Amino acid sequence: MTRAQQKEKTRRAIIDAAFQQLSADKGYSSLSLREVTREAGIAPTSFYRHFTDMDELGLTLVDEAGLMLRQLLRQARHRIEANGSVIRTSIETFMEFVTGHSNVFRLLLRERSGTSAAFRSAVAREIYHFGAELADYLRKETDCPAEFAQMQAEAMVILVFHAGADALDATAEQRKQITQRTIMQLRWMAHGAASYGRKPKD
After folding, report:
1. Contact by Cβ (8 Å): 31, 17
2. Mean pLDDT over residues 92-100, rounded?
3. Strand locations in the chain, DSSP E?
4. 1-51 in CATH: which number?
5. Of 187, 61, 198, 64, nearest to 139 (Cα)?
6. pLDDT of res. 74
7. Is domain 54-197 classified as CATH 1.10.357.10?
């Protein structure tokens, strides 16, 4: 393994360790450098070869979370091609993400309204990119004006994020109910959008 590969491997270990330390009871602001490096299996001094401080690591986690969200949307598109149900497939894919990557989603929720302006800005940027990709998809699928697609995408993102927050600590049965409720709400939204001359796809 080259030095560059080893450096990237260690950097990845630090990022993964930070995500693993997050929980329902522990937000990013509660993490310490020693906890993260211990989890990553490196000396605390080695941390500074990869990040200037914990804030830079935190911003990197937000970037990673945003990338996961965009990959999620692309994954949902492939699944939609298989069964054709846009809304149901998208929500079920999103709920799988919330369940399987709860620490990642918690980070976005907490830092979206946290005390750090830099973190709030980073989360807002990632959510904007997620919404922009969704808007582009809606525009192509419904042949609607870009402005309408953007407004619908923003409303959908808000609704879905709220549903994800509700699902975080829910039981399997409660999560199923949240998923069904959200699917119905998004279908109503899609049919409402159709009043502007678009054909809803659900």
Report:
1. no
2. 90
3. none
4. 1.10.10.60
5. 198
6. 81
7. yes
Angle at 123 between CA 107 and CA 144, to 5 degrees: 125
Query: What is the C-alpha separation between 33 and 47, in angstroms, rounded?
Result: 8
Instruction: Give tens-digit pLDDT for 151-188.
Output: 888 999 999 999 999 999 999 999 999 999 999 999 99
CB under 8 Å to 144, separation ≥6 — which residues?
138, 152, 193, 196, 197, 198
Boundaries of every domain in the chain: 1-51, 54-197
CA proximity to 155, closest of 121, 127, 114: 127
How far, in Å, CA of 174 to CA of 178, rounded?
6
Q: Cα(first)–Cα(last) distance of the chain, in Å?
A: 49
196 has a pLDDT exceeding 70? no
